Structures are given as structure tokens and as C-alpha cells.
Amino acid sequence: FTSWAAATRNYLGSHTDTNVIIWSWCGGVSHASKTDIDTYLSLMSGLEKEYPSISFVYMTGHHDGTGLAGNLHIRNEQIREYCRANNKILYDFNDIETYDPDGQYFGDKIPTDNCDYDSNGDGKQDSNWALEWQNAHPGAWYNCDAAHSQPLNGNLKAYAAWWLWSSLAGWTGETTDVKEQGVIQPELFNLRQNFPNPFNPSTAIRYELGTSGKVSISVYNTLGQQVNRFDLGQKEKGAYEFLFDGSGLTSGVYFYLAETGYAEAVGKMLLVK
Fold first, then answer.
1. CA dist 156 to 100, 130, 178, Å?
2. How far apart are CA 178 and CA 160, in angstroms?
3. Sign of the C-alpha dihedral, residues 38, 39, 45, 49?
4. Where are the alpha helices (DSSP H) in 15-70?
């Protein structure tokens, strides 16, 4: 529970351009004591003070089938409480294994990192929430290798990691890209994050035009398939809000592409039913 801190210093000594550090638990949290986790938190805090220009990301340990009364859950809560109290950056790996994309909670059903859970309260993991969701939502997830787990859970962890790294790099949820004409200035076209997000069943997509132009909004699933397109016609300079209704879609991640005659921008939204 201590050697990683020295390894971090050694690494940073020869990688001076590094600005983010995360150490991933394997099964260590399951057999850690309160003192062990206190040591982890103390060493992380010490590294933060030594390297103030680096973002240190804390992490929880994966499910092991011991449930809410198990040592793993207690130690994960110890990490969470410390991060909340001290405004730390936490990649809550365990929490991502606790909910399916519809927001259904499995933490009280003795889940494992493989997404197995107890469906009837008899103390045995007889079902798998990830496989159930995958089977019910064909085409709404990517097939991939996910060590110790299922493809869907790997997808969810990848989405969370992408969001975390992008946010640490300065991304605010707003994306403006150029279609053809070099760098487009935000005052000419600005696509904002939809609100609310996650949403069910509708959400507002807001955008601002610095000059007039025809506007269209298209919605795509994670496979890149267009599921909706809305031609909004000619719009004058100003701020606009388009209400998107996802009633006919299944739960999952979707991308909305806003296009004008001179620029395009993409946003990401989550439908949870």
C-alpha cells in the first residue's frame, strides 16, 4: 500500500510533461484495512502538495460480491467520503459497476465486477445486469474486451474516463468545429450542452448564431446511425432552443449534430428511461 507513491515520484522525475496521475486498484481494496486506506489517502495528499501542477485522480475498487456489508463497500465509502470532504477528483470505478444505463441500482444485490447479481434475494448471484441490458438493447452498445467484466460495463467506464480526461483538459461540454472555412469563432456559432442531461423523455438543445443561416439538427446513436433529423430552416442572428423528444428511442448515449451553412458542432447526451 506504499510502494506506488515512490514509483510515482520516480516516474515524474523522468516525465516532466505529465499533468495527470491515476493509480488503479485491482483487488486491493477488498482486503484493505481502514489504516491501509488512510495510508493511501495520506500518500495521495502528500503527492498533491509536492506536485501542485498535477491533477491526482482518486479511485475506488471493483465489486467483489460481498455487498453493502462487506469490507470492500466500507473502504470504498471511506475513499468517497474523503474525496467529497476535501474536493478531490474521484474516478468512481465501483459506482460505474453499480448502475445499468437506465439508472437501475444493483448495489444492494451483492454484485460482482462481472456484473453478476442476486435477482431473488437468496444470496446467490444468478443473473447478470450487463448481459440483460445488452440483450434488451441490441445496437446500443459496443462489443469489446473488458477484463473481469462485460462489454457494456467496459463501454460505461470508457465514457466516464473520456468525460473525466476531457474535463481535466479544460473541456466544458461545449464543442465548436469548423466545417470548411478555417477556425470558426464562438461568437459566430455556439452549440451548448443539452439540458437536462441525462434526460427523459425530452431535453433542450440550445445554440447561438452570430449571423443568419439555415440550421439542422441530427441525432445519432453510438453506432453512428442517424435516428432523427430536423431541418429548422433559416434562422437570424440570436439564441435559440430546440426541444428534442426521445420518447421513441431506447435508453443510452446519443450525439446531436448541429449544422449551419458555415459550421457544425457535436454534443453528447444521455437518455435514461
1. 9, 10, 29
2. 26
3. positive
4. 34-50
Q: Which cell goes with 203?
A: 431535453
For residue 230, the number of C-alpha atoms closer than 13 Å in the C-beta half-sphere is: 13
**Residue pair 2/43 in contact by the 8 Å Cβ criterion:** yes
More confident residue, 137 or 128: 128
Q: Give the residue from 143, 161, 160 showing the smallest Cα distance to 152.
A: 143
Residue 191 has φ and ψ, to the nearest 5°, of -100, 125
Alpha helices (H) in 98-188, listed in sequence order: 129-136, 151-168
Tell me the C-alpha to C-alpha distance, in Å, between residue 269 and each of 49, 105, 106, 145, 179: 36, 21, 23, 24, 22
Pick the closest to residue 232 from 196, 249, 250, 256 (CA basis): 256
**Per-residue pLDDT reduced to its tens digit, 193-236:** 888 888 899 999 999 888 888 999 999 998 888 999 999 999 99
Q: Which of 116, 219, 95 is nearest to 160 (CA)?
A: 95
Q: Is the pLDDT of residue 95 over 80?
A: yes
Residue 154 contacts by C-beta under 8 Å, 6 or more apart in sequence? 144, 145, 146
pTM of the predicted protein model: 0.67
Tell me how far apart the alpha carbons of residues 236 and 7 are, in angstroms, rounded to a whole number.
57
Closest by CA to 116, choosing from 168, 79, 73, 62, is 62
